[in-house]
C-alpha cells in the first residue's frame, strides 16, 4: 500500500488512475471501470497502455457493462462476484480456458454518493484471502472518501457562488428601490415648489429646471398644442450645452410620425426610443434615448414633455418611466389650474372695465361670476377627490387604499395567492390631542406614518391612512409569519422613536394596537370581509390592554371560510 498515498495525488483523475491500477494489479483484471451514478453520471476505464480514460456514461451498455448486475450490487451494498463464462462446455481433447469472473465493488453510499468499481478477471476472486479482500475494501473506502470529499467541496463552492450571486442581486435590488424612493421624494419636492409659481411661463420654466436638477433628466423641454391639435409651440427647453432656453418662438406642425401620434392619443403612456437621433433647433446634436409623455386636460391633449440623455449618456431605468408619467400628470394638473386661474383673473379684469357701462346687468354678471366660482370650486373638489395622497401625512389615502385592495383582491383570487391586512390604531390619541393640542397631534400622525413606511418599503405592498388615527398596511402574497414579524418591527421602531405621551393610560410613550388577518380570496367573498377581520383582531388587541398585536381567530366562521385563512 505504500505506492497508494492519497497525500501525493495531484488531481481527482490521478486518484482514480492509481486506485484502478492498484485494484487491477491485485485482481489481475482484464477490464476495470469506475462508474459513478451520483451526484452526476461519470464513467472511467483504466488501460495499462493508456492510463485513465474518461468515457460517456450513457454508453455503458454499449461497452458491455452488465447494468443489471451492477444495479444489484448497488442495491445490496456489498461485493458481488459471479461467473461470466463457463469452461465446462469445452471438449476433453481441448484444454478448457480458465473461468472468467466479474465482480462489482460498491462504493459506500453517503451524502448522495453512489457508484462502484466493476472488473472482469480470470482470477478466482472468491478464493482471495481475508487480507487480500481487506486490502481491496480499504482501497474502496479511500476512493469513496475522496469522492465524497470532492462532492462536498463542489457543493460548498456551488452554495457559496449562489449565496454571492443572491447577495449581489439583493444589493442591486435594494439600490434600485432606494433610487426609486429618492426620486419619489424628489418628485414630491418638485410638486411643492411648482405649486408656488404664479404664471404659466414661470410654471413651465421651473418644471424644466426642477426635472433636470431633481429628477435626473439630462435635457427636458415642454411643448404645447393648439386647440385644433395641429400646431405645436415651444415653451422652455434645454440646449445641447445643458442650458435652459426660452423656446416660445418655436412653432411647427405636429409631427406625423406614428409613434408620436400614438403617444398623443394615449393617457399614461411613456414613449421611449432607444438609440434615436437627438435634436436642438431642428439640428441633430447626438444620439441616445428619447422619451415623451403627453399632458392632458381631461380627455384632451394639451402638450407633451420631451427628455433625453444627450449630456451624461446614462441609460434609462424602468422606474424612470413611472416617475416621468407621474411628473407629467402633476404638471398637467398645475397647468390646467394655472390657466383656469389666469382665465378667471382676466375675466375679473374685463368685468371691472364693463361695470360702468353695464350697471343694469350687474345682477346677471354677479350671478354668472358666482356660477363660475361654483364650477371652479366643484372642479377643485373633484381634483381633491381624485388625489390619492393623504394631505396630512403624505402617504396613500382611503381612496387609494380601497382601489388598491379591490384590485389586489381580484388578482390574488385569480392567482390563488394570500393577502394580509394590518389595521393599526394609535392608542389614546384623543388624550394626546387634548394634552398637546392638534398641532402636536398632526405632527404625531406624520411621525407614525413615516415610521410605518420605513417598516414596510416594498413596492408591492401599501401603507395608507385609513382615517383619523387609524392606519392600514396591505401585504401582497405574504410569507408565513410575515405579518407577525412586521407587527413586531412596528412596535420596536415606535419604542425607539419614544414619542412622549404623559396622558396615556397604557404607557408613558406613544403606542399602537394592531389587528391583522390573512386570507386567500375566494369566489363570492368580498374584500371588505378582510378589513372586517383585521378590525375584529384590532378590537381584541385593544381589549387585551392595547400596545400589542392580535391575529384574527376564525373559530366562529363556517368551515369553508376557515379553510381559506
Automatic annotation (TrEMBL):
Gene Ontology biological process: cell adhesion involved in single-species biofilm formation; negative regulation of bacterial-type flagellum-dependent cell motility
Source taxon at top rank: Bacteria
The EC number(s) this enzyme carries: 2.7.7.65
Key words of the record: Coiled coil
GO CC list: plasma membrane
Coiled-coil stretches: 362-389
Domain GGDEF: 417-554
EC class of the enzyme, as a word: transferase
Record's protein name: diguanylate cyclase
Organism ancestry: Bacteria, Pseudomonadati, Pseudomonadota, Gammaproteobacteria, Aeromonadales
Amino acid at each position: 500500500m505504500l505506492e497508494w498515498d492519497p497525500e501525493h495525488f495531484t488531481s481527482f483523475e490521478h486518484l482514480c488512475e492509481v486506485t484502478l491500477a492498484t485494484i487491477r494489479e491485485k485482481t489481475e483484471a482484464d477490464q476495470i471501470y469506475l462508474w459513478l451514478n451520483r451526484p452526476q453520471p461519470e464513467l472511467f476505464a483504466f488501460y495499462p497502455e493508456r492510463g485513465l480514460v474518461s468515457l460517456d456514461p450513457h454508453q455503458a451498455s454499449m461497452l458491455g457493462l452488465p447494468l443489471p448486475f451492477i444495479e444489484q450490487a448497488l442495491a445490496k451494498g456489498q461485493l458481488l462476484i459471479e461467473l461470466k463464462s463457463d469452461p465446462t462446455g469445452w471438449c476433453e481433447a481441448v484444454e478448457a480456458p480458465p473461468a472468467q469472473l466479474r465482480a462489482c465493488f460498491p462504493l459506500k453510499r453517503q451524502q448522495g454518493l453512489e457508484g462502484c468499481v466493476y472488473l472482469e478477471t480470470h482470477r478466482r476472486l472468491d478464493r482471495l484471502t481475508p487480507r487480500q479482500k481487506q486490502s481491496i475494501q480499504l482501497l474502496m473506502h479511500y476512493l469513496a472518501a475522496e469522492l465524497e470529499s470532492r462532492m462536498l467541496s463542489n457543493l460548498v463552492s456551488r452554495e457559496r457562488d449562489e449565496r454571492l450571486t443572491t447577495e449581489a442581486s439583493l444589493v442591486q435590488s435594494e439600490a434600485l428601490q432606494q433610487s426609486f424612493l429618492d426620486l419619489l421624494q424628489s418628485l414630491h419636492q418638485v410638486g411643492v415648489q411648482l405649486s408656488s409659481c404664479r404664471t404659466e411661463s414661470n410654471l413651465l420654466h421651473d418644471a424644466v429646471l426642477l426635472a433636470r436638477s431633481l429628477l435626473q433628466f439630462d435635457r427636458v423641454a415642454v411643448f404645447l398644442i393648439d386647440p385644433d391639435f395641429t400646431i405645436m409651440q415651444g415653451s422652455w427647453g434645454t440646449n445641447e450645452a445643458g442650458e435652459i432656453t426660452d423656446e416660445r418662438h418655436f412653432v411647427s406642425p405636429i409631427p406625423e410620425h406614428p409613434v408620436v401620434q400614438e403617444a398623443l392619443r394615449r393617457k399614461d403612456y411613456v414613449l421611449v426610443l432607444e438609440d434615436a437621433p437627438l435634436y436642438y433647433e431642428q439640428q441633430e446634436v447626438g444620439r441616445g434615448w428619447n422619451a415623451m409623455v403627453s399632458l392632458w386636460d381631461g380627455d384632451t391633449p394639451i402638450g407633451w414633455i420631451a427628455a433625453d440623455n444627450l449630456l451624461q449618456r446614462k441609460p434609462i431605468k424602468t422606474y424612470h418611466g413611472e416617475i416621468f408619467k407621474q411628473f407629467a400628470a402633476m404638471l398637467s394638473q398645475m397647468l390646467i389650474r394655472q390657466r383656469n386661474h389666469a382665465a378667471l383673473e382676466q375675466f375679473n379684469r374685463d368685468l371691472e372695465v364693463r361695470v360702468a357701462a353695464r350697471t343694469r346687468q350687474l345682477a346677471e354678471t354677479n350671478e354668472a361670476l358666482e356660477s363660475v366660482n361654483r364650477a371652479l370650486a366643484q372642479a377643485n373638489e373633484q381634483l381633491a377627490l381624485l388625489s390619492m395622497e393623504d394631505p396630512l401625512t403624505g402617504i396613500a389615502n382611503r381612496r387609494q387604499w380601497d382601489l388598491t385592495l379591490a384590485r389586489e383582491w381580484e388578482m390574488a383570487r385569480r392567482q390563488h395567492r394570500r393577502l394580509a391586512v394590518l389595521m393599526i390604531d394609535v392608542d389614546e390619541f384623543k388624550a394626546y390631542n387634548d394634552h398637546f393640542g392638534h398641532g402636536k397631534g398632526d405632527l404625531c400622525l406624520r411621525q407614525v406614518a413615516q415610521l410605518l413606511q420605513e417598516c414596510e418599503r416594498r413596492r408591492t405592498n401599501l401603507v395608507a391612512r385609513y382615517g383619523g388615527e387609524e392606519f392600514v398596511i396591505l401585504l401582497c402574497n405574504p410569507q408565513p409569519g410575515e405579518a407577525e414579524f412586521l407587527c413586531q418591527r412596528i412596535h420596536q421602531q415606535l419604542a425607539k422613536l419614544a414619542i412622549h405621551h404623559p396622558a396615556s393610560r397604557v404607557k408613558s410613550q406613544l403606542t399602537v394596537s394592531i389587528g391583522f388577518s390573512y386570507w386567500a380570496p375566494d369566489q363570492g367573498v368580498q374584500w371588505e370581509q378582510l378589513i372586517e377581520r383585521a378590525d375584529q383582531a384590532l378590537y381584541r388587541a385593544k381589549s387585551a390592554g392595547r400596545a400589542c398585536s392580535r391575529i384574527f381567530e376564525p373559530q366562529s366562521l363556517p368551515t369553508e371560510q376557515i379553510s381559506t385563512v
